[in-house]
Design brief:
alpha+beta; four-stranded antiparallel beta sheet; 3 helices; 4 strands; 40% helix; 30% strand
């Protein structure tokens, strides 16, 4: 299964990137993900489910530790080239 995560960390600082935002960027860029897009107001990454979930765990722990007071994220199943959308829906329903 493949996943896409979208996230932001707060508080925002328009003058310079806060420490928690820099940490989040480092975690996502170092993870074993297929696609990473880091921007000033939102970030996305895609990859295999295990890699995305491990990156999200590290992102939450390290960003909070670096001063984030809020982290908003959304995780979407985007499919699996080897199995198809129906198999992904079944796997999610089974708690995979």
């Amino acid at each position: 299964m493949r996943l896409k995560v979208e996230f932001t960390t707060e508080p925002f600082d328009l003058d310079e990137a806060p420490a928690h935002a820099l940490v989040a960027r480092e975690v996502i860029e170092a993870a074993d993900l297929d696609t990473v897009d880091v921007g000033p107001f939102g970030n996305t990454a895609e990859g295999a489910a295990d890699a995305v979930l491990a990156a999200v765990d590290a992102l939450l722990r390290k960003s909070l530790g670096a001063g984030a007071t809020r982290i908003s994220l959304q995780v979407n199943v985007i499919g699996d080239a080897d199995r198809g959308a129906d198999a992904d829906a079944d796997a999610v329903g089974e708690g995979a």
